Amino acid sequence: MLLSGLQHFEFCQRQWALIHIEQQWAENLLTVEGNIFHENAHNKFFTESRGDIIISRGMPVYSAELGVSGECDVVEFHKRENGIELYGKNGKYQPYPIEYKKGKPKEGSEDVLQLVCQAMCLEEMLCCDIDVGYLYYGEIRKRVKVRISEELRNHVCENLKLMHQYYKRKYTPNTKPDKRCNACSIKDICLPKRNKYKSVRDYISKSLEGKV
After folding, report:
1. What is the pLDDT of residues 84-108, one digit of tens each?
2. Contact present, 54 and 76 (Cβ < 8 Å)
């Protein structure tokens, strides 16, 4: 299961299913700008040191327990006495995942859950504890600190459990149209307004009446 799908699933379960189960996708201005922003944010597998901080960009992560894999935009390793050892490095370090987003902080929790899942993957891979991560938003040019709470961890686990169930069943849920649909790149594939009808007969009837 792709870690990036967690963000899609939290935003809209139907969007996630269309992209990750049915393999349907369409670009719009927001997705193109977002891709460019991520390309500029990091070079894959590039590592640099700044004083007592080691910065890893494009770091692959996975969790066998959660059944998910993906990539961290940036992971910073800060030198700490109670940290973990890194191969070829002196001292011990505490990892902090940092996810880059083009826009500004969202009302929903989709970005936060993606970051929390990255932290959970790093914990399993590195045998460590992570209680803090950061979301960097390009529009405001600031990092937002995220506490990796037990509540957020449980939310991630609940979403992933459903995602695995849906994927196994090849199930694409319906959705009710709302304001989020206007910014969705696959709106024309999803056709959210049609999903409010319970049957094809109902849709054709309403269409003939000019109510669609």
Report:
1. 999 889 999 999 999 999 889 988 9
2. yes
Residues ≥6 apart with Cβ < 8 Å to 104? 137, 139, 140
Is 84 in contact with 69 (CB distance < 8 Å)?
A: no
Rounded distance, CA 140 to CA 117, Å? 24
Among 32, 38, 36, 52, residue whose Cα is nearest residue 4: 38
Query: Residue 206 — very low, low, confident or very high, per pLDDT cuts 50/70/90?
Result: low
47-85 b/e (C-beta count within 10 Å ≥ 16 → b): eeeeeeebbbbbbebbbeebebebbbbbbbbebeeebee
Both tokens of 191, joined, read 């056709």
The pTM is what? 0.81
Give the DSSP per-residue string, 97-115: EEEEESS---SSSHHHHHH
CA dihedral 26, 29, 30, 33 (to 10 degrees): 110
Beta strands 46-50 and 53-63, pairing class? antiparallel
